[in-house]
Records
---
Amino acid sequence: MQTVKIVVTGPFSAGKTEFIRSVSEIDVVSTERKISAEAEKIKESTTVAMDFGRITVDAELVLYLFGTPGQRRFDFMWEILSEGMLGFIVMVDSVRPETFREARSILETFRAYAPTPYVVAANKQDLEDAWDLDDMRVALRLDPNVKFLPCVAHDKESVKKVLLELLYTILAEMESGNKA
Amino acid sequence: MALKGNLRDFSITQLLNLVNLACKTGTLVIEGPGDVAQISFREGKLAYAQLGHHDNTLAGILRRNRKISARQYAILQERAQNMGDKELGLLLINAGYLTQTDIIDSLQQYFIAIVRQLFTWVEGFFHFDTNKFSPSDKIPIRMDLENLIIEGSRQLREWEQLQQEIPSLDMSLKFMDRPGTNIRNVNLSVEEWRVVSYVNPKNTMRQIAQTTKLNELEIRRVVYALLQAGLVEIIRPGNAPVAIQPRAFPTTDKKEQKSLVNRIIDRIRAI
Ligand SMILES: Nc1nc2c(ncn2[C@@H]2O[C@H](COP(=O)(O)OP(=O)(O)O)[C@@H](O)[C@H]2O)c(=O)[nH]1
Ligand SMILES: [Mg+2]
């Protein structure tokens, strides 16, 4: 069985778990719940929730979606999870501008790990108070070449669109890379 | 218990706060990346500070504060070399050349400047030596710490924000290509100009900081201003384009890799 992975990152409560849950065929595993139930003693040291989802592509291939833990205290895990990722998605909560700085910071941190393709999702666009994408692009200081997509994490079609755009970016990158 | 540790875990502001509340007497010795600093306290008040090998003789401090001229300084350097600060201070006061307030103010400003400098240190070993006092030939001052603590807390918040904005100094900078902006028309500080002169995809921010002798806080502060003004953007060193990580695929065969991505695309479309 072959596996590939995509990392879903973003500030706390941006909608990472919801995003993964919408397309995963397994229950989005939260490490926190699992460990605390089994071993009460180590609960304190593992109060971090990490999600991962799975999409079986075919008999030989599985795609894993890894959500990153939100707390900065665990940001060493980001680098570990990013190792060998196909690409990553940065989720940003469109109704909470107070998290934009954190989102920028996470994006910059991931960009520094490796030159991996990524897209940014403006999540919670279904809410009335959601910021416009144009304004968010400026506030997040996104490179004009980076795909910035509206998203509603509990809407499967919306999540599919974000994932597909990342995969198209990856494909385009492979094609231009091949020519070079 | 010995008071020692690293500034990464216990900031200068927290240390000052501790000294202040516990009315401590002794000397805080901090070994930063490039310099060693010593700050002495007496019953929770700032008494004395010294940074590296900076000239902290009274003559040197008065010269920096423009209380004496370069020529007067040179004379003192040459002729009053062996005279301690206390003796020289008294001499200047008795001669009616300076008042006691002039001298104390100059010392205070000098010490505050050192502590301010320390606020920008984010790393360094420290220990508090309760048996070490300000050197006996130095003029001790007695200064409340509260204002410095408040100033330091503000800086700490700034530092935290800057670290969030610019988490990695191993990235490079490049001028934004925005038509209509001419960097020559922007009012930049000397420090900002120095950084600007090294902006090039080949130089990481860390290298620019080393060359321009700015510490981690100072380089971030300058870069942040340039970012906010839309003059520069952060890029990967050498402007390396986006690329697939070699280990992202279970196979090295390009054709298989492409087929793999296409299979994922088909699968996701069908969800
Ligand atoms: N209205 C709306 N709510 C959302 C959306 N995505 C997530 N949420 C809600 O936002 C909260 C945080 O989402 P969660 O997935 O737990 O965020 P995480 O911390 O990034 O994993 C939850 O209450 C979600 O139900 C969205 O697109 N629209
Ligand atoms: Mg979550």
Note: The radius of gyration of chain B is 26 Å.
---
Amino acid sequence: MAVLETRELTAFYGDFQALFDITFTLDEGETVAVIGANGAGKSTFLKAIAGLLPRPAAAVRLDGRDIGTLPAYEIVKLGVALVPEGRRLFSSLSVEENLLVGAYGRRRGGAWSLATVYQLFPMLRERRHSPSMALSGGQQQMVAIGRALMSNPRILLCDELSLGLAPIVIRDIYAALADIKARGTSVVLVEQDLAHAMAVADRAYCFMEGRVSLTGRPQELTRDAIHAAYFGL
Amino acid sequence: MLGWIDTLLQGILLGGLYSLYATGLSVIFGIMRLVNLAHGDLIVLGAFLILAATAAGAPLILAFAVVVPLMFFIGYALQSALLNRALGRNILPPLLITFGLSIIVQNGLLETFSADTRRLDIGPLQSASLPLGSGLAVGLMPLICLGAAIGVIVLLNSVFYRTPLGRAFRATSDDVEIAQLMGINNRSIYALTMGIALAVCAIAGFFLGARANFDPSIGPARLLYAFEAVIIGGLGSLWGTLAGGIVVGLAQTIGAHIDPEWQILSGHVAFLIVLVIRPRGLFPRAVD
Ligand SMILES: Nc1ncnc2c1ncn2[C@@H]1O[C@H](COP(=O)(O)OP(=O)(O)O)[C@@H](O)[C@H]1O
Ligand SMILES: [Mg+2]
């Protein structure tokens, strides 16, 4: 059964409709990529699931339960954590405080603690007392992932993990993601970078102008089909 | 010479009172980015509530101990029931609500307590002083007031910087959207913030009433001193707010020492000078 499901999910910014009837499923332990051009609605989709945007009450389901009316601070307690686009670390908090605040509303037991996050990203342990903004982009991304893990999520929503990072750093981040998946965490991976997304995903959805334009397993999707679904050519 | 040393001492002590006025304002602005235009009137409300409790027969210390938590609950309720509804990208609605609140509190106090000037009766403490030798002395009550100002800041800082709840406050201040993703209910953080600020208003109101006469109309001037202290100190730092309060207090007593008519004006001039020299205040927070 799907752990996470959206049915005819719509989202608006004022009068502007950013998502049109998105129907989506994520199975237990699965990694699903959401790809698409800039402005396609990928971040909006993750924010609507996480509760940061108003959405129809029955449009988002977790384990078959409607969570469309819950605020963001309740949804994280049910095990859905978001790594936001652009990292968005708390700038006046140190690295370790950023991680600790990730556990603030924790209601779930699980594998993640400061110790296991530092095991996953040993670099962060050395810099634990640094202001978070003093870190490199890659290290900040590690903090953002670690911060989300501190709530012991069963579903991790990742928005553009590779954005603005050097290839070697992206490799480290994706290696860590493999570790996280190996613990049974289900992952929704938003990426503009096709190669990375397709390499780790079990399935992919392509968004175009707020709609799903293509879906399937990575090996079934041809370059031409993806290209057409990306740009509507 | 001795006169000048005495003036400086008095200025620093007066700064303690201004710092108490300003601390709540600083906390509210730091966490919610809200300027509470009713802040001065809420300080005066604190003073009147303590007065009313003593008039009803409570000993002063008991009145104080009851009114501080009472003001906390008033702040909590005010934020949950009213100000949280006006949250959003536009900062004007909450600002206007606090402006309306200022008028309501002033008129409510006028209606209930009349326009007469009042004073809290603190008994022999009123005139008690601590001799410092060579003819100098400081009043005991102003000294306690400065101590209270420092104590409040130490207490608040230890909450903000040493507890999980304090981390949640700072995270909410940094990025309220992402804070919610951490399981933080920003509305309850805001309600707690307003509660804390009003509890500090009650403490400030106590020292206001113990030190000088007060009546329902003096709130806006207290708001102005508090505002100047916060800006001089630099947004985001409570120790900066203390320093800002002391700068305003010193400027006023030095001005008064030169010519009694200059007291209030000198405070404002000091504020303008600091703004020109250091637009971000004396101790601005490193980021944002
Ligand atoms: N805060 C916002 N206010 C108004 N429009 C927005 C806002 N955020 C995103 N949009 C619009 O919604 C659409 C989808 O944006 P987004 O979800 O960020 O796309 P993606 O993440 O796929 O690049 C875009 O047209 C964008 O301009
Ligand atoms: Mg995006």
Note: The first helix of chain B runs from residue 2 to 32.
---
Amino acid sequence: MPEPLISARGLTKKYGDFTAVDTIDFDVDKGESFGLLGPNGAGKSTTMRIIAATSQRSSGTISILGRDPEEHGPQIRAHLGVVPQQDNLDGELTVSENLFIYGRYFGLSKKFIRNKIEELLDFAQLQDKRDAKVEALSGGMKRRLTIARALVSEPDILMLDEPTTGLDPQARHILWDRLFRLKETGVTLVITTHFMDEAEQLCDRLVVMDKGRIMAEGSPLELIKQYSTKEVLEVRFGSDRNKEVAPILREMCSRIEELPDRILMYVEDGEALLEAITAKKLHPTTSLVRRSSLEDVFLRLTGRSLIE
Amino acid sequence: MKSAVEIAEERANRWGHQLYAGRARAILERAFIALRSSTWVPIATGFIEPVLYLLAFGYGMGELIGNVDSGRGTVDYAVFIAPGLLATSAMNGAIYDSTWNVFFKLNESKLYKGMLATPLGPLDVALGEITWALLRGLSYAIAFLAITAPLGLVPGISAILAIPAAVFIAFGFASFGMAITSYFKTYQQMGMINIVLLPMFLFSGSLYPISVYPDWLEFLIQLFPSWHGIELVRDLWFGYWDAGTLMHLGYFCVMIVSGLYFTTRRLRNLFMR
Ligand SMILES: Nc1ncnc2c1ncn2[C@@H]1O[C@H](COP(=O)(O)OP(=O)(O)O)[C@@H](O)[C@H]1O
Ligand SMILES: [Mg+2]
């Protein structure tokens, strides 16, 4: 067994009395795409900063490429490409200057960086913006530039903190496509997100985080299998009647979740259940049968939705 | 071709490698690239301001005042104030870059945070930014000397030493200015810097010797760096050396070292803890 690239045991981060990351364990293997899925405040960014050697843990152990970030910060950072939650591109410089100077921060030669810039501008689809100032870019372009910038040093691990938060659907899909390409080249990805579709799309394996703790771990499919049913039937009766029918519905399947606007019923065969409900003359105003998602896993684990 | 990892490994066993990657140069390089597209107005103002003061006071007031005792011989009023104004412009140049510009990069653009996510250390950032601020002080000093020499205000060749002196005091101000700025969080706090600076420069003896003050005020002024800066440059301008000159140098050594220390420490605590 090759050693994992990143390995955390009992990792904890406290800010004063508040525990932001609470004794978590996880491993990230070479070449995999590893996700931290959780709502705002779960401790994802804090965990990312500890891995990136820009924040020190309070207790526990963590090793990145076999090293402790507390003692080998600069060397660890030389292995990583970091895409922070908030873009911190250099607004005084142009697109290509941003890539150039970032390479210089790593100590790379000008010649090497100049060649690399062409490759990265192609990758980020920013060739025609190379001389534009950062402010002139759209949100999606800024994000792609931040990713390209993180790749200047040819990192072994790319850290992406909420790569598509705040982007419109089209920009998100372009970004996902770029990340798929990266994955194919064998770069190890560590991604945080509070979008379950993003986690399902991009992550080979993930941990579900809530309030600083890891609630579950596995591939998206394994997690759904373990914590949810194959299908979900969503029914709405209008907010007054939902309460009234809920006890009846509860008898009809193994698990239901009452949300403010709808009721989720967990079953293997959603259509069959819907027929049974109709047979009881309950007549929901709307109904939908869908496959279980990571959102259902999260709801099961915490009793809350990912996005509040 | 060395990879980023190999470059980082080379320094791995050196003392202080967590704080300093030996690449303050990269920060300077960034500043030069940014300069190409920045506005020239504040930079030009820094050049012109001391010259305007020199013309207005040196030749305007100078007519009324005549000669003054500089403490290093009696000289024309314009000759007396020239080194004070040189020192003031070097200090102002250094302050401009190390306060407002640093505040912006620290709090608004999050530039330092980005830099410190690379193998760079906080001392690289501090040294690079302070050196940049110091270069501004240097260029102001050279320009001022180039303008005053043809006017016959430079007493002798030794005045050339006023340039390294100006760099030294700019280093002190930039280092200390960046340290203080790194602890400030709001614009109101930054505004306080201006409130302190204006009287400090007005009363520090660039336009007249501080011996005109009552003893307590004279003593108070001697605590401030601007007085030491003006006196240091004035000493060298007139080719004059004594224990006081050394004391001024010592004062700036302390400013430089403590400024670098606190800036580095603060950057580490802000972005790497
Ligand atoms: N520097 C800090 N000081 C104090 N509390 C912090 C700091 N950074 C994060 N926190 C708190 O830690 C918790 C986890 O934050 P974070 O890791 O940013 O969560 P996430 O990225 O999952 O949204 C939040 O409650 C946040 O308020
Ligand atoms: Mg976050």
Note: Chain B touches chain A through 36 residues (CB under 8 Å).
